[in-house]
């Protein structure tokens, strides 16, 4: 069949335009694509916490204004950390590149960028490690998988280690437990030695250091924010709860991520806490100084994380409380559970937590003296100490997102499910390989929840959203519950893009709705001040 | 490219042994000197590497938890996936080391036609890995009969179980064949799965080719180019008893086999093969998840600059007082 | 044979070629993963694209108007709108179908038939472009929303506080 001369076929264009260069990964420098990376940290934030190399710079620029001897600083820092962290040293050496982790990363699944495979992300650093710290790498170079640390390699580190949410999913599947989060943390420490943080992380760090919380809320603002919630609670229940601040002699110090104090839907979760504690008559106090459970320092360096975390024990000591209760948060609990005592303990001025209502002694927190509010509530429900009406959540079909940090760095799986089953009647699990220790990240963890990298977040969150979509299609799920402040903010946006008919809430919002308080008026509104469906009709039927 | 390079190195190694023994008759060098050097390198290297790792402390308590934590007494705690005691950790490590628990996790859900979710799994890597490592271990134990006298009954037992099919003479030992099959599979998946090929280095192909060549030369020697077993044992016993002798007339193929093994031993400590030792040290697997129960101490913990409450109150005192928040200094 | 029957008869081979072509717009390492991994939860990109393609093809077969298949177009474009594609690359997959059909049907359909089919695919492409723009607009809206969520709360509370103060 004779053919007229045709313009290039789309498939030919496709091949020319989209296929990547046929080069190995070592020869493919990172391309900074808009929407996939965060802005560079402003100098004022670095100055406030005394970080090196504060300067005006942009991560999209050619010149990052690094100090002359940047390479020595990085290599010295790398060597130093090899000696300090067995995890890091070991994980540089023992990977066999079996590929079991390759398709376990939500960023790889959503983006398809090979450098988002955990193994390759780690190789970005291993290749440099081999070049400067192993004999084989020094002698054989490329043949031993070693490469020089160049400006491009440094930028590549920055790009890809700020595309890892430290969620640890890869480490679940690795036969040696290699945890990319450990490598990412070290990489971020190294880039921070040269002042290369992101603005979205550096800002909250500086705020938290001086003002006590990421959002930079000053003491009176914290109080008035909570006052507004108190007003709303009164409107909903007719009961005025009376939280106290910085009160000495309280039995319990309550610490929660500051996201709960400000952004929706975190505030509704916070209202849930306020109502529960009031109903229990708990002798507790808020603190404006230790007003942040989260810790963006953790996404910067171990030292910065410790400096921010210091306030929790210091404040508990100053106020003379007996123990600490912690709100719903992901990385806060990774830190409380695995780091806090080591950094800033021993907390020998506190007592082993005992629930004043049930008398249960929380032996699992006997050293750290800090109890998760969901553990605390599960115990109360078990002992029948709270009056709950789950039918108030009947308009909701709920599924539960296990947060990465509390799943793989703690293991709190049953407690939230136990609570959810008691506060609502319609609960559906997402598919088995997307929950519990295999849970998918929201795509915005570890300080990646900025606005300028929205495309990256939407990609990274796709595996999670896809599982939510499945239960939405199948069971009509319309509420995604979780126990993490970053989830509450990030999943809300994620759902609006991928599964718009699903809303997001903290577990304690469901609790607040279901909680029957002594002397409350008939509930006609939920905690969002929206009419509670079905409640009026029910009344009529009864009468 | 990495594969070709590695293959040519292994071929060169074989040629060296062939030329050294078949051509130049350097049996003392290949039969005694190199094996001793290789074993010495292996032992010293492994100790060096493990000590080096062990000298880096474990500053933080960072197990990867894969099951329910131990919290309230009425909540079922996952003792193996999220151990809170040393016994639990031993169990977890045993599952990991003996059965490759984490690789087994490569579980998949398949959505087939119809309303039901079907759970399948992608366990080929797990299976091949398991077959490979266990076969290797059994082959290694079988070889003890060359280095012991009298030969422990365990070795005989393993030998007879291994050859229970009783095919051919000498009896076909399954593990040798399985080892070769598994290592071939591991090689093929490295070549044919693009993601894995993309991440593979020469250092990934080399040990595979080396082990392939070792297994192949062993099989050739046992079933095809038979060598004088009595003389081989004389040599190996001499090595084991530090009283080396080199009997005349052992086939060259034996020296090829031995030289490749020596290469593997000497290469081992400098390579990723050290994962064998490393897995036991991995902090995400070998720690108990009890960090809220017991304090974990960081040996290099150091004081850091903090923002104290006093500094905070100093800055916000007036605002606090106005808001009715208690302050230390009026 | 009617065009409809022909399309339904050729479905398997067309789908396969079309899918392969779409996969070629991803890096080789990725394409293999997207094609090999059948679990929709482990591989949402691959499975979403495939399901979307099926819907679009069925729509073409039944001569549904572009609105009828916009849901399927949307599911594919929504994914590609957040991946590293330019606008033209993101919607190019529609044109790939045109090409596949031309190859597959050239011996069985007269040029006129192909032309009809071609213009229907062009209509799909226009619709795809609308959807792409909507997705991008959504992204900007989400960025703005996150920002506004903070500031509006401040304003709202300031207003409330002012009201209470009086």
What report would you give on this structure?
- The complex is a heterotrimer of chains A (543), B (330) and C (166).
- Chain A is mainly alpha-helical.
- Chain A folds into two domains: 24-197, no CATH class; 212-543, no CATH class.
- Chain A has helices at residues 10-18, 43-48, 70-84, 86-93, 106-111, 118-133, 135-140, 151-161, 169-173, 180-192, 199-211, 219-237, 259-262, 266-280, 302-319, 331-338, 340-344, 373-382, 404-408, 414-423, 454-460, 462-475, 485-498, 507-514, 535-542; strands spanning 252-255, 284-285, 323-326, 370-372, 398-401, 479-482, 503-506.
- Chain A starts with 9 loop residues before the first helix and ends with a helix.
- In chain A, 64% of the residues are buried.
- Mean pLDDT of chain A is 93; it is low at 1-5, 10-21 and 539-543.
- By secondary structure, chain B is mostly helical.
- Chain B is elongated and about 100 Å long.
- The model of chain B is unreliable at 109-120 (pLDDT under 50).
- With 166 residues, chain C is mainly α.
- Chain C has a single domain, classed as Globin-like (Orthogonal Bundle), CATH 1.10.490.
- Chain C has seven helices and no strands.
- In chain C, helix 4 runs antiparallel to helix 5 (66-80) and helix 6 packs antiparallel against helix 7 (111-165).
- The longest helix of chain C is centred in the last third of the chain and has 55 residues, at 111-165.
- The mean pLDDT of chain C is 84.
- Chains in contact: A-B, A-C, B-C.
- Chains A and B meet through helix 3, helix 4, helix 6, helix 9 and helix 11 of A and helix 2, strand 1, helix 8, helix 9 and helix 12 of B.
